[in-house]
Design brief:
Elements lengths: L18 H23 L1 H29 L4 H4 L3 H21 L4 H8 L3 H14 L1 H17 L2
Helix pairs in contact: 1-2, 2-4, 2-5, 2-6, 4-6, 4-7
Length: 152
């Protein structure tokens, strides 16, 4: 740049307030398309992701049932619970179901992932776990601690 020239230097484009959203959206779409290509090549992966989807959706539905069940309670603390935390706890409880089923030496999750069978049974277990929510998770943590102490 010439010293006598009053031109401003060219600077990289400024990042607007929406740019991170567009970058994140682009990455998200890229990851989804990569997963879609991988799923086409790997049929077992389809069962894997469907199993996770069944567990998460059932847990969310269980959390919603738990929320509305608590609204019917006379307890003010139970009524104070918000919907989103109930859904999150329901999903968390549903994701603990494979641990429970492994303790029972059940092959439901393995059959769902490998053969694509048993989704209704898995969905029922996850829905029940999601409805019970916090007590279910507490019981599983206690069971896990006892299992770890016994070395099994």
């Amino acid at each position: 740049m010439d010293k006598n020239n009053n031109e401003t230097p060219i600077v990289a484009a400024e990042i607007g307030h929406n740019t991170p959203v567009y970058i994140g959206l682009g990455i998200f779409i890229g990851v989804l398309s990569s997963i879609a290509l991988w799923l086409e090549e790997e049929p077992r992966a389809q069962h894997y992701w469907l199993t996770i989807l069944v567990m998460v959706a059932s847990g969310a539905c269980g959390g919603i049932v738990n929320y509305y069940y608590r609204l019917q309670a006379d307890d003010a603390i139970a009524k104070a619970k918000k919907l989103l935390p109930c859904i999150a706890i329901g999903i968390g409880a549903a994701l603990v179901v494979p641990f429970l089923l492994s303790l029972m030496q059940s092959n439901i999750v393995l059959d769902a992932v490998s053969k694509g069978e048993g989704y209704i049974t898995l969905m029922s277990w996850c829905l029940l776990a999601g409805i019970s929510g916090e007590p279910f998770i507490s019981k599983m943590v206690t069971t896990f601690n006892k299992t770890g102490e016994n070395g099994h």
